[in-house]
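Quick one - first record:
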Amino acid sequence: MEFPPRKRRGKLIRHAAIVLVAVLTLVTFRFADDEVTGKAEASDAYGFTLIFVVAGYYIGWLSEIWKRCKGKAFDPFVMPIFYMLVLLYLYLSFRSYFVQPGATGLTILVQLLVMICFICRVE
């Protein structure tokens, strides 16, 4: 008994989720209350929002990247790049947490939820 191949999942949901969460992060930091300086700045979130966008697309396309790189010179670097992106994301989110802990906690929760959903949807 043979099973037909699965239908390809749309990329629109992936793009919409990444862009909406990135915008939500910047808006949250814009209106958050900063305990240190007293004024809210969206620039506190630029670093880990940019890394979230890069890591989100990388996770979303990880299975395709893996298939294309099998047996090529780039093959040993696929997972170390993923690890580097995750560690850089954690570093920048901890830096942001010391400036605005409330906004960072909320946005990291939403960002990690989106990344976990992408990992579970990998084909």
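second record:
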Amino acid sequence: AAFASVLAIDYGSDWIKASLMKPGVPFDVLLNKDSKRKIQASVGWKKTDQLFGSDAYSIVYPTGRLERDHIVDALELGGLRIFALFNDGTAVAVNYAMTRAFPAPEYHVIYDAGASSVRATVVQFSSEGAGKGKAADTQITVAGVGYNREIGGTEMDRRLRDILVNEFNAKHKKDIRADRLLRE
């Protein structure tokens, strides 16, 4: 059997996270130069230098089918072989199923509330093929995926802020949004 290393990258709208799986090492989270797990999802150019992460000028990028195709093209141009691209709900389901048995089918909803979107993945876990000394094979079926690219953690933070400001203003009969120091 051939052994290979696998680089897993989570491209979020605000943060990028990466991990490495290789023979002899179960799971290694990659850190940036500041020993942090998350890297700001931004890219920029300063004269002839290309910058990314906290060194970059922030450019938010939406991702869809076309953007995923571009990621695959870029990785192939870089000489890397792609095993698969799959959504984060499926990745969580695979991770969850690795250490569990499912004698009866189970349905789970996996939520991912990122900075700019919210996704829900409905998965079914079941086991098949057990018998005569053979362990059951776990089957994962993605029953559905829903998402909203209009809301996310950042928008929820803004709405909560507005609720708290309005309550404060009503209680104290003062508009704190008019305070110059709070706007800076």
